[in-house]
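Field reference: sequence -> structure
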Amino acid sequence: MGMLVPTWIGIDIGTTGVRAVAYAPDGHCHCAASREYQLKTPQPGWAEQNPDEIVAAVEAVLREVALHLDRQGRKPDGIAFSSVFHSFLAYDRRLRPISSLMTWADNRSQALVTEMKTSGLDFLSIYRRVGCPVHPMYPLAKIAWVLKQRPGLAAQSPRFGSIKDYVFLLWTGEWVVDHSIASGSGLYNFLRLEWDRELMQFLGISEDCLPEVVPTTYSRACAGYATI
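Structure field:
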């Protein structure tokens, strides 16, 4: 019997659903699975989700695909996953979620963004550094909104991230985010490859409040598989 070619599982976390596909290096699809989850709009302009509901959906498609592969006599060589841009999640200092997941479609910070534009910051210079305009879609505005609405939160050493770093944290125990997702935050200085110092000072947060930024090829072991 010939040696089996490598098999990878790709997982894409979207706005309203997740899909997993097991594939070979030549692009052949061995099997696939998908799940949907709720998008809640409790108030006009709000668009939020339960992060743990998303995690459960991600794990469900992974189990389904892994079961199909097992029936085919295949074992995954690794997992690679991507996620929707501009999601936002607040954590406590122990990295436990303390907010709903705000999606890119959430614009509850619109009024605050208008205020920010008259704050005296040079937003043209900021745009040239971070590549994102000041807009409610980006986590920059969402962090500002959360800190304003919960004024006692800053003293609790909160952390701020996305759905991708939350899944990676649960799977590996490590809190990191890749350059790609960081670049869609409105806070990442791509000229210096670091969180923007001026914006952190403006928000009143430190670098410890944000996940470590790593390459998109960064990998860690989880559940017996290599996760990228």
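Note: The CA atoms of residues 114 and 135 lie 9 Å apart.
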